[in-house]
Amino acid sequence: MASTTPDLDSRTQIHHLVVGFYREVVFDDLLAPVFGEVAEVDWTVHIPKLIDYWCRVLLGEPGYDGFVLAAHRAVHDVEAFRAEHFDRWYALWVDAVDRRWQGPIAEQAKAHAARIAAVLARRLLAIDWAPPEATALGPAHDVAGAGTAGAL
Ligand code: HEM
User: Fold this and answer.
1) Domain that includes residue 123, residue range
2) Cα(20)–Cα(8) distance, rounded to whole angstroms?
């Protein structure tokens, strides 16, 4: 019998993931203030943007035309990110994916998030951030390589 756990292979699935992830973020003691008090994020703008971003990354769909590094640099300039922000963000993301999705694209969603988090940590904080399963994903110095630059 086929698996009943879907992969992130459509815009609808990605929509559910992004909405579910931010539902956790807004109740998170560490991350909620970054989005609320620091960045004053308008969720009606942010959520569709993030859906577009992940549809581009995972499905190759056009749509997202922002600058991820610049957006985070602007937030960081108001109040500096810390390593624990990346730990929490990534833990919530992995949780959100694993709770409802399974397959090669779901794996890609986690691996891509780890790479971008590492690049952001490197560029903004000048630290080597790596997810817990870093050894499975390859050494941190690989993250700035080809394939990541376009996403930033
Ligand atoms: C420490 C972890 C992170 C925190 C606290 C964080 C926080 C934020 C905040 C507050 C914004 C809104 C910026 C604004 O509109 O003013 C934002 C935007 C965004 N974030 Fe993150 N983020 C984190 C990591 C990541 C990672 C790892 C990714 C990608 C895998 C990512 C993808 C995005 C994207 C695509 C945007 C929209 C950028 C744009 O405006 O075009 N974030 N993030």
Assistant:
1) 11-137
2) 13
34 lines ligand 1 (CB under 6 A): yes
| Ligand 1 centroid distance, CA of 2 (Å) | 35
Exposure letters 6-33 (e unless 16+ CB within 10 A, then b): bbbeebebbbbbbebbbebbeebeebee
In a domain, 26, yes or no: yes
- What is the tens place of the pLDDT at every residue in 45-91? 999 999 999 999 999 999 999 999 999 999 999 999 999 999 999 99
Question: How far does the centroid of ligand 1 lie from the alpha carbon of residue 39, in Å?
Answer: 10
**CA torsion angle 7 11 15 18 (round to 10):** 70
- Whether residue 84 is contained in a domain is answered as yes
Please report whether residue 38 resides in a domain: yes
14-42 mean pLDDT: 97
